[in-house]
Amino acid sequence: MKYLIAVLLTVSIIFSGCSEQEQPQAEWALAIHGGAGTISRDMPDSLKQQYYDGLREALRIGEIVLRDGGSALDAVELVVNSLENNPLFNAGKGAVFTIDGKHELDAAIMDGSTLAAGALTGLTTVKNPISLARIVMEDSPHIFFSGVGAEQFADGTDLERVENEYFFTEVRHRQWQRSQNDDATNLEPMDEWVEGDKYGTVGAVALDMDGKLAAATSTGGMTNKQFGRVGDVPIIGSGTFANHMAAISATGWGEQIMRNVSANTIANYMEFGETSLENAMNFVLTERLNPGDGGFIAVDKDGNISMQMNSQGMYRGSINSLGERVVMIWEEE
Ligand code: ASP
After folding, report:
1. What is the pLDDT of residues 275-319, one digit of tens each?
2. 232 lines ligand 1 (CB under 6 A)
């Protein structure tokens, strides 16, 4: 009997070992988001297509970098640049309006392999805030600059500068005009399809072939925000975080994401709770945040990707070295 049990145990160990080996791991992986919120399924197909195209284009840019052995940091910066330049998303061109009818941009980037980080809040003239965040990370002894200091730091770089009006889009302007009447930071739907833009923000997370993780997030913040309001995005550990376990980028109601130090909580729960990325993200979305607060994208050190939200939708996409590609807006499509 003892002999039989020993044989069965050995066989089951061999088989469980095999099945683990059979799961191929991605050598590199990339996930992106273009904001979470109450995204109406009634959105016209033509517009839906524009969102999908914007997400696919950003994924393609990151794919080229990672496939050729480029760094996770380069991938997330270039991907976010592409989303910042796309007026559909609330970052860079297309950023929402503050209560004063201006644009104040926040961004952060983090290198999971060194815990180096760069963050900015209250930018008004930098065309691509994520690139400035990268320069802060690499060239400055500091991590986080705000307002006038952030603009002054930008003066010392050769990054492209623009008038604040560059960020203007008709849709965001109408959204802001409506919010003036409501005196609300959180907007109700105004245009049929702007419903989805209650939140915005763009982000990218990546694992490269060297096993390094990076996260980047860029945003115009929330419509009608007060002068000087800082959201979760540039707060390292809240809206943006990367370490040896995972790289995470958030979107949604910044105050809620900050209260729960959400991105860092996901990474810590994985590490100290010895749980998967999927479980850790689900925990924060269901046990810490409230329904409708937003969502996250993340990739872990083994190339697992997780993209979850507790809002109706989140513009998102992912790709990995195994050829798995996803571009989605709602839970099921
Ligand atoms: N989290 C961003 C903020 O609160 C907004 C967003 O994700 O759209 O600034």
Report:
1. 999 999 999 999 999 999 999 999 999 999 999 999 989 999 999
2. yes
Q: How far apart, in whole angstroms, are the C-alpha atoms of residue 125 and residue 128?
A: 9
Lowest mean pLDDT among 43-52, 109-118, 232-241, 259-268: 43-52
pLDDT at 246 over 80: yes
Residue-level pLDDT at 188: 36
Catalytic residue among 98, 124, 201, 251: 201
**CB of residue 218 inside a 6 A radius of ligand 1:** no
Ligand 1: residue whose CA is nearest its atom 4: 254
Residues 6+ apart with CB under 8 A from 19: none
Distance 26 CA to ligand 1 centre (A): 30
Ligand 1 pocket residue status of 201, Cβ below 6 Å? yes
Tell me, using a 6 A CB cutoff, whether residue 94 lines ligand 1: no
For ligand 1, whether the C-beta of 37 sits within 6 Å is: no
Q: Which residue has the higher pLDDT, 13 or 90?
A: 90
Cβ neighbours, 10 Å, residue 240: 31
Q: Quick check: is 201 catalytic?
A: yes
Question: Which pairing describes strands 325-330 and 313-320: parallel, antiparallel, or unpaired?
Answer: antiparallel
We find that the CATH architecture of domain 25-328 is: 4-Layer Sandwich (3.60)
Distances (CA, A) of 54 to 41, 87, 104, 261, 299: 18, 10, 23, 29, 21
* pLDDT tens for each residue of 35-45: 998 788 888 89
Question: How would you class 7 by CB atoms within 10 Å of its CB: exposed for 0-12, middle for 13-18, buried for 19 or more?
Answer: exposed
Q: Are 304 and 278 in contact (CB under 8 A)?
A: yes
- Top mutation candidate among 223, 232, 315 for ligand 1, by most atoms within 8 Å of CB: 232
- Taking the domains of the chain in order of start, what are their residue ranges? 25-328
